[in-house]
Amino acid sequence: MPTRRTFLAAAAGLALPRLPGGAMLRPERPRPSPAQLAWQRDELALFLHFGVNTFTDREWGDGTEDPAIFAPAAVDARAWARTARAAGFRALLLTAKHHDGFCLWPTATTRHSVASSPWRGGAGDLVREFTDACRAEGLRAGLYLSPWDRNSPAYGDSARYNDLYCDQLGELLTRYGPIHEVWFDGANGEGPNGRRQAYDWARYWALVRRLQPEAVIFSDAGPDIRWIGNERGDAAETNWSTVDPGAVPFPGATGDRVMAMLRHGDPLGTVWRPGETDVSIRPGWFHHPAEDDRVRSAEDLVELYLTSVGRNSKLLLNVPPTRDGVLHPTDIARLLEMRRRLDATFAPERRARPSAARPATVAIADLREDITRGQSVARYAVEGFDGSQWRVLSRGTTIGHRKLDRFPPTVVTEARVRVEEGEGEVALVVWGTGNGERATGNGERGAGVEAGRGERGEGERGEGRGLSSEGKSGVPQHQPEAQEADGRGHDPPEPLGR
Ligand code: FUL
């Protein structure tokens, strides 16, 4: 229903924000649901890839793994959650089943699970330990249930497998209390009998809605949260939380239009579907001892924060447990250092409140739209007054939940944001070294974000991704068969560029 305000604006032909090319934003803009809002405000979630691959040192298991290999000596889900909380993460997401089909909970649907492993004498339930740990630490729990299953004999026998998959979803969504996010991967390779499966997405999603109405559903095609289009940790500068749902018809769909919609969203989109940025702290998604010295630096993690949370996305950072079932000390140290740097950068005393009497050095603009009313800003400029004139500090397109812009440290007596296209209030906070101090930019004060570095070029930062490159496509991007050359079944790691 048009509100009186939008009706008047439309009637008068005024005030509707114009977009490049003359298009106008819809007067009735989509808005986030309470669950989508909570999801976005969490900003940081920890992804945990753990399973038989941890023991075979592979990225994709082929489904023939013997459950007996799953024997973590010291699984401590509470410690995962404690680390996450200490590092400022508000949610965790566990691979309850990856493409190899091994289930981390004692499911009635297959014997290929922890129940057939020596772990906890076959009486363990890692999904239970995980969800209990999240709750005990006050964090939200999410689950990844891979639809591609290289173990299940039913896979490819479409109706039978869809029933089995729904039974698995049913177990996960009824036994463990509230689940905040259900993560659907679009991978659709061959099953053990060489057949492909026709997934029944509408049925899966309807089941989630029925069993966990408060959960958000992630996939390329949402319906609540969309993939951001790469696994490099790099959300696009122009990132609308609204999409045209027709452009991404199913998870795993490919093509330029699909990628553009995942990357940028659509200002005229009819559906609210913000993007999630999934990326690993290591080259692979699973833990590989050979990658223990290839963990992203704290500086790089801060950079990821800026290119995801700071671009209207949410960061889902993968930190895989080791064979013992604990997080690696290097990964923990990097996470905690990332937190220290972020806290130092955004510490209350670094918040600049410039005035004519007390000029301040500013280096970061922190912009927010009130997304409870939708997203509208399509172009803006942040400006600082230097005592005699206004100068542009940064410029950008979309803002959404949060946009973080770095610029060379600049002394100003006033700062403002000018919305050039779009409407609505934008909240601006500027960060620097506080009133009357000069930015050092050398981390001396513990700042994590060096001012004035500007944008790094593509590829300069290591890409640190696991398997898929462009496209979480329906057909796996990198068939494991092609990856066996290094004997581990995953791509040779790419340089992290540190
Ligand atoms: C991809 C999977 O193929 C990877 O193994 C990993 O789980 C990643 C998050 O999603 O599609």
Provide a descriptive summary of the structure in words.
With 498 residues, the chain is of the alpha/beta class. It folds into 2 domains: 34-345, TIM Barrel (Alpha-Beta Barrel); 348-435, Galactose-binding domain-like (Jelly Rolls). Helix content is 22%, strand content 19%. The protein has helices spanning 4-12, 34-42, 52-56, 77-86, 126-136, 158-175, 201-211, 256-264, 298-308, 329-345, and strands at 44-48, 91-97, 140-145, 181-183, 216-219, 225-227, 242-243, 271-272, 275-280, 314-318, 351-352, 360-369, 379-385, 390-396, 403-412, 414-421, 426-435. An 8-stranded parallel β-barrel has the order 1-2-3-4-5-6-9-10, surrounded by 5 helices. Helix 4 (77-86) packs parallel to helix 5 (126-136), helix 6 packs parallel to helix 7 and helix 9 (298-308) crosses helix 10. The protein is globular and about 75 Å long. The termini are far apart. Mean pLDDT is 86; it is low at 1-16, 436-448 and 450-498. The site of beta-L-fucopyranose has 9 residues, from loops.
Quick structural gist:
This protein is of the alpha/beta class. The chain is 22% helix and 19% strand.
Number of strands: 17
State the CATH topology of the largest domain.
TIM Barrel
Gyration radius, rounded: 23 Å
Architecture of the largest domain, CATH level 2?
Alpha-Beta Barrel
SS field, number of helical segments:
10
The N- to C-terminal Cα distance equals 53 Å
Order of SSEs = HHEHHEHEHEHEEEHEEHEHEEEEEEE
Q: Strands of the biggest beta sheet: in what spatial order?
A: 1-2-3-4-5-6-9-10
Using the alpha-carbon principal axes, give the shape: globular
Give the class from helix and strand content and strand pairing: alpha/beta
Largest sheet: 8 strands, parallel, barrel
